[in-house]
Amino acid sequence: MYEPNKLVCDCCERVYDITNKRILCDCGCLLTIEIGDTDFNWSIVRGRPMEVWRYRELIPTPREASIVSMGEGGTPLIEMVRLNSVLKLRGVKVKFEGSNPTGSFKDRGLTVASTMALFFKCRAMIVASTGNTASSMSAYARRAGLKPIVIIPSSGVARGKLGQLKLYGALIVEVSGGFDEAMKAVIEYSKIGSDIYIVNSINPWRIEGQKTIAYEIIEQHGVPDWVVVPVGNGGNIYSIWKGFKEILRLGLIDKIPRMLAVQALGSSPILRAYKSGVYEPFKEPRTIASAIRIGNPVHWRRVLRVIEESRGAVVGVDDSEIIRAHKEIARLEGLGLETSSSTTLAGLKKALEDKVVDRGENAILVATGHALKEPEIIDSYDLELIKVDSVNDLISILSKL
Known about the structure:
By secondary structure, the chain is of the alpha/beta class. 39% of the residues lie in helices and 15% in strands.
């Protein structure tokens, strides 16, 4: 019997048509896109560019939809040789999402969400964001010929990300408080319904783009033992897990990885729920890693389900560990990540110490954004500067190094 694509509620399991513009179920819960029958296999994608839409058969947008794309996806999987000699694992690689068009993994979800915004004949797109989602949405809105509208928290947005919003000419609305207050405003707005399309990670089409990280990892590496993901709102780790499960269901892999969720300790309600069994938001989340500074993540239930299904774990790292990892991965491997991405290295170290991860296993760190998103953090680091008055002074100094 033919099984169609459908929108399904996480809570009440109500089913909606895949072309329904709604963001949430009538009961208020998140919606998941369930893929129906497909003839997808790896031979289909041979010869196609390594990018998000390489996996067109697994992204069930309507066939008549006009795809909005800038060649996102196809990010490198980089082996960490020097870091691995320190960690002494069977292998560590970084999936560097900072090489996407706007410098973060958000572009994967926004190429799909903006495609659907056009399909739904919307005039604008809107997000609540601490930076990366706003930057990406603004770029893809302009690519689609739509107006970008961004709700930002008064508690701060990284300067590099704010610069992108200026560049794209986004309309910025600042609300009092942190990200959670901005997100609450957008969720309330979603209940009204309009021709302004909400593209936060509560939008199920965002997940469909972000899950392609899993597909690429399989093609580039095979199935790893562990996939390590920084967790703020939780949409990305859920997306990646969804991608692995879909390929398993199609019979194209015979195992799936364990998932390691990493939170900053000052903003770690999911970690606390994982340990105690009771979920409670952080009223005033604090961490240098602004991209994951979220006190009440909308995907918290999904994240805990991912951890349970994958036999994974949640770990927390403090800001000093984040900064140490930030510098270490740059100075040992030459890879510039934003601070939220460096939590993956710090978290992997913590998991090794706690014997959650075994030295005989391998791991892939999902680095979600580029270092240039946070110039103010880089500016705070010490600069090794030596001034010279002559070439002879230069030669003398260099000969002693």
